Amino acid sequence: MEALLNVAIFMPLVASVLVAIVRKEIFSKLLALITSIAGFLITLTIFIAFPWDASGFQFTTKIDWIPQLGISYHVGVDGMAVSLLLLTSLIFIVVYVWSWRISQRPNLFIALFLALQGACMGVFSSLDFFLFYLFWEGMLIPMYYIIGIWGHDRKVYAANKFFIYTFFGSLFLLLGIASLIVYGYFIDGKLSFDYLYHSSKTYPILLQYVAFIAFGIGFAVKVPMWPFHTWLPDAHVEAPTAGSVVLAAVLLKMGTFGFVRYSLELFPDASRELATLVFTLSLISIIYAAMMALAQNHIKKLIAYSSISHMGMVTLGTFANDVNALNGAIFMMVAHGLSSAALFMSAGFIYDRIHSYNMEDLGGLAGYLPKLAVVFMLAGLAGIGFPGLAGFVGEFLILLGTFKNFPFWAFIAGSGIVLSAVYFLHMYRKTMFEEETISDYRKQKWQTLRDLEPYHIISFVAILASAFLLGLYPYPFVKTIEQTSRYIIGG
Q1: Are 363 and 437 in contact (CB under 8 A)?
Q2: By the 8 A CB rule, do 221 and 168 touch?
Q3: Would you tell me how many other CB atoms lie within 10 Å of the CB of residue 48?
Q4: pTM of the full structure
Q5: 289 lies in some domain
Q6: Structural domain harbouring 8
């Protein structure tokens, strides 16, 4: 299994280089699809073989890289990491299938996504600070070009804003890492970037506060939490559909992953003492972003604000100091990855057919695109936590665990679930119904609209079937995730 994990990380990176060298469209598309399917089968194998009752990280590989500085190639997975690796590999299959007909610089497009896939796999697997930061920064470059080249009207502005915000957060993350390395050097007289070495230490409370804030800013920008959220709506609005899918389903999870992996484990005292601050920012994100979503006429901007709201729910559960809440937060990362991917695919399909994201230009599409109407509704129900779909399990566990220790915060956060139903139903009504609001010219023009094609259907089925699976039979996923929760919180 150790070898399989390394293959899952480096196979997309090698494929990216091959695509850049060969530069044949059909070769690039087939290689990307084969690589992604192989990666999914590998991560599924690791997930199935993962021991629920084991403690700590499994399937680890550690090779000295720069021993003079205490840097090594050290990777491994716990219950959270293996779940996010499985989500990542599935999402990239969907991206390559969805983008099968791309014609604008397809080789570069696919090479960038393969590089991005490898970086994402590396972030979730790294057990060395230097390696983690290398992959963390590495994913920034492909996404910058994906938005800047294949985006819409204000793509360069959105790409620059994405880069500046993320790089700003990364500088604080780097300072936080440096503070731990320097402390370890002064205490033990050796340099070490190894995560397990640092997680075994008990840091003084002042260092915990400083490092928690430094790490926290880096992760909060990526989530994104209020007030670091403003880059996300612009990035989503201008990004191509495939870029929005990966951004919402995978990249946002790096921030919440970082809070669980680093903040809770390395700075437990600061995490408890500063929980009220995180709760406050989380609730602002939940309520404010939901209200902003309700005020939007742009479909992608509405979905972007909904992602901010849902990520606020994840950070709330992360710091509730309860196993159920942390289980729900990690489960919600996966559930939101599925629902947000399906929602952005629906929005992208509408744009491909209508060439507008503005709800004022739409209406009555259910009568002309009935297949889209069905999958769009299912995607929305997954997003608002409808019973039987993955989002319900995550939200239920978060609120259950949070209510146990912080009933007031849980009650306020619950209102975000109600608001999510309001803004989704508002968007669905404005786009799929209200046919009387569109002109006769549009009605005649829309008679020729083509509904979902096979490659669209394959993409939606992969995502929505996974959402139903996690919603109807969450037991193996919760048990796998619980391995992380009990390791961090205890019990």
Answers
A1: yes
A2: yes
A3: 11
A4: 0.93
A5: yes
A6: 1-164+229-258
